[in-house]
Amino acid sequence: MVDVVQIVVALVVLAIGAYVVLFAGKKGSASERKGQDQDGEKKNKKNKNKKKSKGKKNKTEDDASGVKNMSLKQLQRLYMKGKNRKGKVKVPDPTDPLFVTALKGHTEPILDAVFAPSGTALATCSEDRTLRLWPRKSFEGSDHKPISSRIELDHITHFAFSTDGKAAAGVLARDQQIRLFKVSSKTGFTPVKDIAHSHRCGRLPGHSAPTAHFAFSRDSALAASVARDGTWKCFNINVRWDLDEDPRLLSENTYAQPSSAPRIAISSSNYTLCVGSKQTIEMFSVHSGERLYAITDAHAPGMDLTHLCYDMDDEFIISTAYTRVHVWRNLPQKREMIARLTEKVRTERNQSGKDRIKAQVAELQKNLKAYGW
Q1: Residue 290 phi, psi dihedral angles, 5° rounding
Q2: Which residue has the higher pLDDT, 36 or 175?
Q3: 274 SS3 class
Q4: Which residues are 321's β-sheet partners?
Q5: Per the UniProt record, which residue ranges are transmembrane (predicted)?
């Protein structure tokens, strides 16, 4: 009887031992498998992110490559819609570090762009028969909602604001007259009257080829012209026109891509000017004529630049091509201001004046550093 009991106890002990060993082995295997699965998931996720990043890079390269291989008609359709019919190729943003954003909405070529005197909004006119008012504060964000006003049976080719910003004038393409508008930040542009008037004051000499475009400074002290021969000139026009005094040439230079329709603009503070031709924007010193910076891919290949302007604070430069508006930071001017102010310190006799100029230079250097310049 005792032997039978011992045998039964021994069998029970062996069974329990076998069960423990087997359960522990399963638990270990499950833990190992779980660890392996987690490692596998991490690896797959890492490969997926890497593949996604690579895919995004390849997509950008494909977009750029696709744009280069398009015809002009395809490019124009792409600019209007933002992507082609199959949705595979989109308009790539410029790669230059000065690029801020693109303003989209016009469905036909933009003909003019100008800032309101308050500097709070940009006005654009287009062959799509609309005038659009873009809030400046939206440039830094992604939500660009302009106020749009329609021109019935005609469109505006050139546009300008009055000094107080409460009125504006535009040249009608069909009637060749000037249309006056009331301006409101809520309702946009309201037509008032059409007029026709012109008067010659004087001429700016110097170009050996036809002048393609000109611009005045904000204070009307300077005028700049750009010609099809690849040259630009800047003049001091603060002279006595009634006595037939000639404007004084301040600076001149050449621009990189001569064309039949170059554009020129003078900054609000008269420190710099910029020349745009084809897809290139170049920035120059008004003081010396020196080339300060060049953006070579301002717009897509084949989409020639149609207009240039500065905002009232000289923080941004605006360029247009076909239906798009591109916004750029005006950092090169800050460098030019530092150079001019540094020269001014040497001639300033008053110590408080020197300290004030040095403080301005320090602030400009701080602003440049914030953008990695």
Answers
A1: -65, 140
A2: 175
A3: strand
A4: 324
A5: 6-25
- How many whole angstroms separate alpha carbon 337 and alpha carbon 360? 9
The radius of gyration of the chain from alpha carbons, rounded to an integer in Å, stands at 33
Please give the sequence-ordered ranges of beta strands (E in DSSP) within the chain, or none if there are none. Answer: 99-103, 110-115, 121-126, 130-135, 147-150, 156-161, 167-172, 178-184, 188-195, 211-216, 222-227, 231-236, 248-254, 263-266, 272-277, 280-285, 291-295, 307-310, 316-321, 324-329
Residues in the chain: 373
Contact 300, 99 (CB under 8 A): no
Q: How far apart are CA 283 and CA 297, in angstroms?
A: 14
DSSP alpha helices (H): ranges in 69-102? 72-81
Please give the distance of CA 34 from its chain centroid, rounded to a whole number.
Answer: 51
Distances (CA, A) of 242 to 5, 239, 245, 331: 134, 9, 8, 39
Looking up tokens 């001149």, which residue turns up?
252
Q: Could you tell me if 319 and 279 are in contact, meaning their C-beta atoms sit under 8 angstroms apart?
A: no
Tens of pLDDT, residues 143-161 = 788 888 888 888 988 888 8
Containing 23, the helix (H) or strand (E) segment is helix 2-68
The Cα 91–Cα 187 span in angstroms is 31
Phi-psi category of residue 176: left, alpha or beta, with phi > 0 → left and psi -120 to 50 → alpha? left
